[in-house]
Amino acid sequence: MPIATLVPAAPGGFAGQSVVEELLRQHADRPARSRIARTLGASPLDANELSWLRAAQAEMIVGDILGRLPGGYSVYHSLPIRNTAFWVDHLVVGPGGIFAINSKTHWDRDLTGALRSIPINDHAMPYLRDARFESAQITALLGAVLPAATVVQPVIVLVNPHKILLARKPDAVTVIDSPRLRRWLVARPRVFSAKQQAALTAAIDDPATWRAAAQPLAPAHLHARFTALEQQVAAARTRRTTFAVLAGAAAATVLAVATLPLIAAVEYLAVR
After folding, report:
1. In 10 A of CB 252, how many CB atoms?
2. Is 142 exposed, middle or buried (0-12, 13-18, 19+ CB in 10 A)?
3. pLDDT of residue 245
4. Which of 85, 101, 114, 222 is the S-S candidate for 90 at Cβ 3.0 to 4.6 Å?
5. How many CA atoms within 13 Å lie on the side-chain side of 119?
């Protein structure tokens, strides 16, 4: 990903920064892999850490999409919501409104769901409830400068799912796949004047609007460590694939050698 997409805006950080910080915090206590584990392609991350890695990658993909919005849009990432333990992945202010966007990692199957939850594997995830809560909290934080009857619109972006098959459209929450996000945002009808947008961005730019992040780390340092982990995971996957192919080839060779006497015996009997 181009470094330009990771340069942080103030406040907030680069796309996925809060997730990267949590991933690195968890991984710091993980013992180093042994030489044989590295040789055999054991992943440097456990299953939980891999889920954080994929979540960060999803946020970075959506951040890259938002970075290609036309002029007239302001985009923020990884904003800690004051008075809560929540972070909003992306906040977008444009002529068509203000949007609190949550990025979710891709599904390798069709997505189905109801109004309150979205199932991931066999677990119902409260993504819709959380999206409504986050948008309500940000609406309250910006209430002094939001036009009357305007709310922050919650959006869940699914990164490249096969299909989205919700039972019916969730109330108040837009669920959309990542390829359509930019076009959807640009197509929103104008609701803010330039003056209103300027007032909103001024409020968002004020650090007092948000919860202060504890011990912020340098974004370049975070990104470098995350990239190194990505490379280690990719290298381990390549090693596992290589060993699987070699093992399959070896098994096929052994099977062929083992069956040669049987084939010879059958052919001998056939010619008698």
Report:
1. 10
2. buried
3. 66
4. 101
5. 12
Tokens of 228: 């190194």
Q: Which of 25, 82, 84, 15 is nearest to 55 (CA)?
A: 15
- C-alpha distance across the termini of the chain, in Å: 69
Instruction: Encode burial over 204-226: b for 16+ CB neighbours within 10 A, e otherwise.
Output: beeeebbbebeeeeebeebbebb
Q: How far is CA 204 from CA 8, 10, 65, 69, 174, in A?
A: 14, 9, 21, 18, 22
Model confidence at 56: pLDDT above 60: yes
pTM for this prediction: 0.79
Express each pLDDT in 159-197 by its tens digit.
Answer: 877 665 555 566 688 888 899 999 999 999 999 999 999
Read off the tokens for 197.
């947008």
